[in-house]
Amino acid sequence: MGDSDYGQRFLPKDSLEELRANFQEGRKVRVAGRVMTRREMGKSTFCDLKDESGRMQLYAKKDVLGEEGYKVFRDLSLGDIIGVEGELFNSKTGEHTIKIEKFERLSRIVRTMPEKWHGLKDVETRYRQRYVDLISNDEVRATFKARSRIIREIRAHLERQGFMEVETPMMQPIAGGARAKPFVTHHHALHADLFLRVAPELYLKRLLVGGFEKVYEINRNFRNEGLSIRHNPEFTMLELYQAYADYTDMMSITETMVHHLVTMLYGKDEIPYGERTLNFKTPWKRVSFYGALQEATGMDLRKVDVREAAKKLHVEVPSDMEEIDVLNEIFGEKVEKDLWEPTFVVDYPTVMTPLAKAKAEDPGLVYRFELFIAKMEIANAFSELNDPAVQRQRLMEQKEIIGENKEVDEDFLTALEYAMPPAGGLGIGIDRLVMLLTNQNSIRDVILFPQLRPEKKTAENARVGEES
After folding, report:
1. Cβ atoms 208, 215 nearer than 8 A
2. Domains present along the chain, CATH in parentheses
3. Burial class (CB in 10 A: 0-12, 13-18, 19+), 308
4. pTM attached to this predicted model
5. Position 351 pLDDT exceeds 90
6. CB half-sphere exposure, 90, CA atoms < 13 A
7. I want to staple 114 with a disulfide (CB 3.0 to 4.6 A). Which of 62, 120, 142, 259 is the partner?
8. Which residues neighbour 164 within 8 Å (Cβ) at sequence distance 6 or greater?
């Protein structure tokens, strides 16, 4: 090894995708990337070069590179990163190819690449060593490019609707988020515990009080809870609030935006998801919370004992579970499992949703919807409660139900006393939305570096790809 193994600045002028799309024989090019395959043919060598955009064949000839240069090229390892200058031509088989005129090694690989035909297959290794996963699996790279495009288009779509992007604190003095369990950190200079945010909701509403009328944040949230194929402790949410609107406006925003993303990616209303095809043609189905429960169970769960109903329906719940959580468990097992096509479930029980406005004609329900697609909750929206006295009462009642020593956010209640306009608020789980739009079954496949259980230590870590 030595300095020649790890080169200096080498700015490529061309991308391989662009060269393939606008191929012109004889064109001089300057590219960089990773060596992925190699085929020896006497005094010449073919290999594949891979950059962020794609692949292209390289052709190295001893007569052009000279004895020493050709020897160095043949000594390259699969996975080495090189810079190349050369000329485009078509090989005898019609393959677009770069004839190398000169090259330099920019970085030497010292690990073993996964077996070339199968890529990196071990799931645990794929998540722990995402960099190797991205090198090996083109479809994984495509998923994360799609994620970036989706988020970029969400921003553009909201900007076109007049929404302003803002930033709110990720470390908060009070643990919000209702029953969600927060992560705790400590600020040494302030001698105070702080909480990683569960949601930005109360700060965004403060901005409505301050006079901003359309705000949104694509935010990182943290919940100190379990791991699953649909849950990661650190996750990305879109939250937006619109003054003078209500939950029907949030429904329209959700439907329009998600349908736009579907047609942008697929050019039609239908997308594949697992073995199914999901249809996003608008308008989407709307069902009430209790109506969907009654249709699925044959019971009016507003008029029966929910614990007895759970027993009759064979829904197992802990004996000390709050009644409202029992109701939610019944909904999860008996309704959610059939919600494949985009469906708005509307009008939830008031006790479930302390920050939403109660329905004028039925105070036991609130103006709220959740959007379910492919059995997953994708979005949640309210007509926001803006009466400070009622909001205080609701938060105190929730504190009693939770039975934990959680503080009520007095500053938020003070903000409401300065008058917050009626508003609609919407939250969309970006990770789950990307799962849907890229046909992925696990949230870990759409998060570049998902949280994993601690790795078991071994005497010597196996080289990358040996399991493949």
Report:
1. yes
2. 3-107 (2.40.50.140), 136-284+341-445 (3.30.930.10)
3. exposed
4. 0.91
5. no
6. 6
7. 120
8. 212, 214, 215, 216
